[in-house]
Amino acid sequence: MNQTDDQATVRSSGSSQADNNPPPEIAVVGSANLDLVVEVPRVPLVGETVLGKDLARIPGGKGANQAVAAARLGRSVAMIGRVGDDEGGRMLRTALQADGVDTSHLTTTPDTPNGVALIAVGADGDNSIVVSPGANGRLSVADVEAAADVLGAAAVTLVQLESPIDAVLAAAESAGGVVVLNPAPAPSSPLPAKLLEAVDVIVPNQTELALLTGHGGTVDVAVAADLATQLPTPTVVVTLGALGALAVVEGTANHIAAPVVDPVDSTAAGDSFCGALADALVRKEPIVDAVRWAVRVGAATTLRAGAQPSLPSPAEVTSLLGEDRDED
């Protein structure tokens, strides 16, 4: 839980693994969804019908996206979650395995459909999403406890809010390394104090930050920096879309600007940001440098369509954005 200077501190772990089966660097506890995506001229208003292009079926879900994002950046990753006993569940498991993600603790749930996300992507790259949790809603504390060895040994554990909150809390409390919470979807009620106490780094967007702090107005960069200090978590990283991100450590805010891009599809940009942040924390990068890397990976993700298909490798980040430079 404690931080030293501007870098998250990895907790020590008493877990051990056989030499021929090294533990993953990153454990992801979260959701796996089948994304049903339609490109539309604009995201429809309430009560409006908009004609779109052909339906695409794409592997997604915040947990699975973050797992694949970190794996493509070169990290060893284990996924802890549930998929449905259907074609969608089989497709998602295969997709994770194709990217080298350990699915030993990805449980198939009998007689239960897989989670589904219904996504409308506008011409400007913005999207509107409705999620049916399906099997993701059956993730239990027992599932998390069964993965205690993985959680205890991982340098970074990533959790989100597309899974039951008791399972998320159990994962955070079982983790042996840095705990990163992406509080998405935005919470409709206050998060348990015990969860926030178990988290080292929390990564909300502007909307999520407003809900977490009870703020009723617009959240610009200055307001976000102030609101972030109200959270009990040692490090708060606020994603700001095209404006980049804020890294707030013990009350000190650093704004990291984003590269200027012409986005194609913003789906999974936040997930790739979290995966990249975890990648940098495994490498023990200072938090500001970790956020700078995550901003670049998130921006690169918006330049291709789809959730997991858009998640880049390090070489692709460079090819899409050019050489790294300080955007501040």
**Which percent band covers the strand fraction?**
15-25%
- Roughly what is the average pLDDT, rounded to an integer? 91
For the termini, the CA-CA separation is 29 Å
Q: Reading side by side through the largest sheet, how are the strands ordered?
A: 7-6-3-10-11-12-13-14-15
Q: Give the H and E element order.
A: EEEEEHEHEEEHHEHEHEHHEEEHHH
Major sheet attributes: 9 strands, mixed
Label the structural class: alpha/beta
- Helical region count? 11
Radius of gyration: 18 Å
Please provide a written account of the structure.
The protein is of the alpha/beta class and 328 residues long. The chain has helices spanning 62-72, 87-98, 141-146, 148-153, 165-174, 193-198, 206-213, 221-228, 269-282, 287-301, 314-321; strands spanning 3-4, 7-8, 26-29, 33-39, 56-60, 77-84, 102-109, 115-121, 127-132, 156-159, 178-181, 201-202, 235-239, 245-249, 252-256. Strands 7-6-3-10-11-12-13-14-15 form a 9-stranded mixed sheet, with helices on both faces. The longest helix is centred in the last third of the chain and has 15 residues, at 287-301. The two termini are 29 Å apart.
Structural topology:
Elements: E1 3-4, E2 7-8, E3 26-29, E4 33-39, E5 56-60, H1 62-72, E6 77-84, H2 87-98, E7 102-109, E8 115-121, E9 127-132, H3 141-146, H4 148-153, E10 156-159, H5 165-174, E11 178-181, H6 193-198, E12 201-202, H7 206-213, H8 221-228, E13 235-239, E14 245-249, E15 252-256, H9 269-282, H10 287-301, H11 314-321
Parallel strand pairs: 3-6, 3-10, 4-8, 6-7, 10-11, 11-12, 12-13
Antiparallel strand pairs: 1-2, 4-5, 8-9, 13-14, 14-15
